[in-house]
Amino acid sequence: MKTRKFFSVAVVTLSSVSALAQGAHGISPACSKIHAACVAAHFDGKDAFFRCMHPLLNGKKVDGVKYDSKDLDECNSLKRGHEKQKSAKNPPPK
Questions:
Q1: Where are the beta strands (DSSP E) in the chain?
Q2: DSSP code, position 90
Q3: pLDDT computed for residue 30 by the predictor
Q4: Could you give the CA distance from residue 9 to residue 70 in angstroms, rounded to a whole number?
Q5: Phi–psi pair at 41, nearest 5 degrees
Q6: What angle do CA 25, 27, 28 make, to 5 degrees?
Q7: Residue 57: enclosing H or E segment and its boundaries?
Q8: Tally of helices (H runs) and strands (E runs) in the chain
Q9: Model pLDDT for residues 23-80, shown as the tens digit of each residue
Q10: Sequence ranges of the domains in the chain
Q11: What is the value of pTM for the model shown?
């Protein structure tokens, strides 16, 4: 049962990463640049998101990652837009 729950959480999280990085016409250049900065700082696979991109997008510092703050701001605005779309599709029960 724990394995199934973990798998569900992983799928949802990875789906969010995919949605975050995609704009209307494919992958967002800003999010791609942040991801590339994480990879350049030797984060790979899931670590590139969980230990690098996610903390950066939540306002935390990540040692060794060099990025343009404009790219981070743009990627964050895409994240907020995605969260608004998601909440509009799934409004809280009344």
A1: 22-23, 26-27
A2: S
A3: 95
A4: 30
A5: -90, 15
A6: 90
A7: helix 54-57
A8: 5, 2
A9: 444 679 999 999 999 999 999 999 999 999 999 999 999 999 999 999 999 999 987 7
A10: 17-88
A11: 0.64
